[in-house]
């Protein structure tokens, strides 16, 4: 069992420690109330059944018994609620931290983790922490408090019973530790299977079209089924160990209680101990083992949480590549950049060698810079560093205003239109408002007009209320691209970045995008990765990776 995940999980649980301390404190009060309750019950039974005292004489002990029972219920409820609420709070905050981290890692950093595995880690793995904090920790503390209180009381009542309880009690945690050590392996296997199942199911759904094209859809379903079966079997193994452990614990604790009863019974018959004391010890003996059994029941919550930590740690180990870049729409507008300067920029992935080596060029406002180059030469990488999705290794990218002053990267207003834009399965209005949630319809329409998509929206029966389908499936490729352009314009960008803006489009749609690009470039810096003549024709300069900037006559040759 790795020490790393134990310390990680303890670190998370530590945030709930004040509330957990209250829960444990209340548990302690509950323990004292339980003992009081049992003392009063033993007295009541001894008085009424043995000494034949009138029931009326037992009014106060009986009221005390009821009050203790009622207070114990309240205290127990408060203790559980405090633990649950604290756990819920900690887990919610932790989940928010993870989501924020997700954005800091960014799309480039996340490429190393399968989406299905990531989804399972951020949902099921985080959820597995809650029972650990809410149940395991308070029960582990209760396992010490209540048995100690009961032992202390029994020690004052009967030495033999004390001895039996003191010797048998510690066997349970020792047994749990021994069983837990091997059960952890089974739990780890169950989680690994769950993560694999999530990843392969997600892959199968995402690649359904490809799988069908190659006639592999059935095979893929069989594979997911096999993984689900493997996960079921692993879960059943875990359940089997859990049930067996509980059964063994029940058996041992019942045996210990029976031993106490036999010893007490024989001593009661020989007159070495009185009835009230024997009865009280017999009432307390099962309660002595109850927290130990509760603890063992929640022990799997700890193992589950530890196994779940593996997936979370894989996520937490990812480097945070995203550089905080880009102004939000409601942020006060700073001076528009006049020039965007790439100065001796080098970049690469992980420990690998540089993909971009000492790139230098300047993109001016009012111009279009096209970036071309052979496949794999680093065009997308160049866009990644410009968009702040990964850091540069050397050199810098600078934006300067017309007075020559630098504009901080967090104040750049960048609009980004990827090659395969992601539209949400919502209305056109909702998709456009992603970039500016407060935008009214007038603004949405003016931006749509800029992107050349307004007439298309107006022709739709539901206009801006049209639902675009999952990933924009209800629209054509060109319509998706122009809607994505409109969405990028919602941010009032000074720098517009396109990745293959006309790829896969017919000539009419490509021409529409190219014209929109030309118009938009009048007051902006536009950078477009593209090989297509329609874009290269509009470009003011072409940056050819890795050689550098081509001049206009060279552009013509490149286009030809
Ligand atoms: N996340 C990554 N981790 C490691 N290497 C990567 C990663 N992304 C890209 N690469 C590598 O970086 C190099 C440049 O990739 P990039 O996607 O920037 O090229 P490109 O010019 O955009 O290619 P294409 O025109 O085919 O899209 C390639 O060799 C690629 O394998």
TrEMBL record:
GO terms for biological process: cysteine transport. It comes from the Bacteria. It holds the Pfam family ABC_tran. Residues 22-304 form the ABC transmembrane type-1 domain. GO terms for molecular function: ABC-type transporter activity; ATP binding; ATP hydrolysis activity. SMART domains: AAA. Coiled coil: none annotated. This is Transport ATP-binding protein CydD. It comes from Acetobacter tropicalis.
